[in-house]
Design brief:
about 20% helix; Pdz3 Domain; alpha+beta; single chain; globular; six-stranded mixed beta sheet
Amino acid sequence: MKFKISILALFIFFTTTNCDTKDDLYVPESLQINDFVWKGMNLYYLWQNEVTNLQDERFANQDDLNNFLTTYSNPKDLFNSLRVDNSIDRFSVIFDNYETLEGILSGTTLNNGVDFGLKFKAGSTTDLFGWVRYIIPNSDAATKNISRGTIFYAINGTSLTVSNYQELLKNITQTLNLADYDNGNITPNGQSVTVTKTNLSENPVLISNVINQGNKKIGYLVYNGFFPNYESQLNTAFANLKSQQITDLVLDLRYNSGGSIATATRLASMITGQFTNQVFAREVWNDKLQSYWNATNPNQLIDNFTDKLANGSAIASLNLTKIYVLTSKSTASASELVINGLKPYINVIQIGDVTTGKNVGSITLYDSPNFAKANRSSKHKYAMQPIVLKTVNNEGFGEYQNGLQPNFQLTEHLSNLGVLGNTDEPLLNVALNQIMASGKVIPQSTSINLTDFDDVDFLEFGMYSEVK
């Protein structure tokens, strides 16, 4: 008797052969979370067939599976044991409270408004410091004396390290101990700023304006997250740019770690407009789901350019044939999808740093009969966000796990960050020079470039889809 999974109308039923009684499917209450974790991963995980304990023939029956599940007292430990090597899967996560996960995916979090990066101090592999990338409007930080480029080396008097930063960042109220930056040297200056977290919804459209240079009207848009709840605001920004008859567009995705595949598809459709119903991206799932959808509904695996938002409103499209995209090592997932998906259709000029290299996407799985949010268990709040798919563009290319390489490489330096939206901000300035065909050489900084601290537990989520 082998444990099998079948799919019918996208509702999941777990069945066994030669089983005559319901006892064969009995799961003790103490194992129900672990059972949810295993069955969700067995059905959806992209690398399911490469993990021995996830393979369909691994357990003879539910009893056999139960015995395995009893060896894990913590659902997170079980979840992580079912993942492939971290060098392949860097992004799958599990939460013990789905409300936290939902907030992150929608752009609503407990947040003080300081969007920051972490770097290692010069010569250290353990000591960290933070630098402010931007301040979220309408946040507590927006009312304080803190801005892009501010450096902090400690929180509440405790210096940041790789072993304590997560605990320090959990504090609702944080006193950021500030420092001066001098060509790699971080020197405490005795100043501090206290910020408090509140429930904050971030409109990902941070800046949208038009820069007039010569005979060019250049749109500049800073977009920091593919949040479905803010598609109308994004569309309004494009409508405003369109009404001003821009000739070029600079899309700033340097701090955009991703989000909804559907929203990414709509952003690509706002940039263009001339490719409606053509293939923007194709999704590749694990073998059994891929086979199922290829046989029953292959359109499930295709994301087409569209002329409508999710709410049915018409998209304000610019019909561009060229776009300039600003990137950094924090540019990930749905942001990379937009770049890769547009390349077969228009000229994409990438300026900045190599991107993260997240060519895979996830879905949210709840403990319910079909893993959707409806009818989820009331006994716990666990939810998973495992990697379940890979994306390729209309030419079949999706192998950018090492990042998308820029046409013009330029790394942000703390000694010369500039103000976002100002024409002399280094990355934007390069884009403007290219648009104006001035032939100016990319400025090369002589300052020390300290190493970024990259930790998936610190990063926000990337590309995700809906449960199919």
